[in-house]
Recover the amino acids of this structure.
């Protein structure tokens, strides 16, 4: 699988609890591959998983899932993880959901504090007259096979969480995925999956609106108050929306054969308007053009160091139709021409 090159600050931002990747390690072990083998394949330090309260970055999480897929395959890996992940694995958010009075209260809590545990995947609640609808999408680019596993894990995890909260109340639900139907569904009858539809416009969980007024058997006002207070503390430690948008734009600005995404395309990926994108960036003292120049500098140096591509082709990939303009810009960034930089990189 090809690897996404994340900006440094995103790579170092360890925000995902190890309880999530730990489930993939457990499943791999059940299928004959040890934790040590997975971590070695992913080139991850075992110390990351030494503490139950540890955290990993999105990049480390993706590397681990990539390694598990490579070593044991993907025979419904995401759906298996979603079915097994207990609400308690979500820390203070899980306890808040379990302590809520009704499903409607739990839905509000999930909307309010999703980012405490769900960084990297955005959850959107759609207020439909007949249904409760949750749609999800990944915030940053990743390998399609990893994205597939992650989306199945998160969306099915929301379904199984609601099933737990409803206890013995039957739950008629549909999981919709914007991907081709896999061949492993027949192997997963033991998971008691709901109706699953593939090839859909968006990834979503669809439930009857009648469930909202259902009481939750584990409701506890005192526990709810404590869990909400902890969620508030954790939320306060996270980057602001504006900081998050800047980080996501940096991640999305990756040079490929089609060049860089435009502001309009980035806004569409982030599910915000182009105007909101400009405002968020401005509030952090930057703009699209400045972030694009930073991305070009990063990618130019990487391509010069790691490939033998002609400088003219590198210039075109970075969006410079005239190689002389690229040379001029590169010299402003580094004080050297692209040719001089490449020679020094190999010396």
């Amino acid at each position: 699988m090809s690897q996404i090159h994340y900006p440094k600050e995103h790579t170092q931002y360890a925000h995902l609890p190890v309880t999530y990747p730990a489930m993939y390690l457990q499943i791999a072990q059940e299928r004959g591959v040890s934790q040590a083998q997975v971590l070695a394949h992913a080139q991850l330090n075992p110390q990351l998983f030494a503490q139950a309260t540890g955290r990993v970055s999105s990049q480390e999480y993706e590397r681990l899932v990539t390694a598990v897929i490579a070593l044991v395959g993907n025979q419904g890996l995401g759906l298996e993880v979603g079915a097994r992940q207990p609400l308690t694995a979500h820390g203070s958010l899980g306890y808040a959901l379990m302590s809520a009075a009704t499903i409607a209260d739990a839905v509000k809590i999930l909307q309010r504090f999703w980012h405490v545990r769900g960084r990297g995947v955005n959850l959107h609640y759609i207020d439909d007259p007949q249904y409760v609808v949750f749609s999800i999408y990944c915030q940053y680019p990743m390998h399609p096979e990893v994205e597939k596993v992650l989306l199945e894990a998160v969306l099915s995890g929301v379904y199984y969480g609601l099933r737990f909260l409803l206890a013995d109340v039957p739950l008629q639900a549909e999981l919709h995925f914007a991907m081709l139907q896999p061949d492993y569904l027949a192997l997963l009858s033991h998971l008691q999956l709901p109706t699953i539809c593939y090839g859909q416009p968006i990834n979503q969980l669809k439930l009857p609106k009648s469930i909202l007024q259902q009481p939750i058997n584990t409701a506890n006002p005192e526990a709810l108050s404590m869990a909400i207070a902890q969620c508030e503390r954790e939320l306060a430690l996270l980057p602001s929306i504006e900081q998050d948008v800047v980080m996501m734009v940096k991640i999305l600005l990756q040079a490929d054969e089609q060049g860089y995404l435009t502001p309009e395309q980035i806004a569409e990926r982030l599910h915000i308007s182009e105007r909101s994108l400009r405002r968020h960036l401005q509030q952090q003292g930057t703009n699209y053009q400045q972030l694009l120049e930073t991305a070009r500098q990063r990618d130019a140096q990487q391509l010069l160091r790691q490939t033998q591509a002609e400088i003219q082709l590198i210039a075109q990939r970075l969006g410079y139709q005239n190689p002389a303009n690229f040379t001029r810009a590169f010299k402003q960034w580094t004080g050297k021409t692209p040719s001089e930089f490449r020679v020094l990189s190999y010396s």
User: Anything to note?
Assistant: The mean pLDDT is 89. The domain at 241-346 is CATH 1.10.10.60 (Arc Repressor Mutant, subunit A). The longest strand covers residues 131-138.
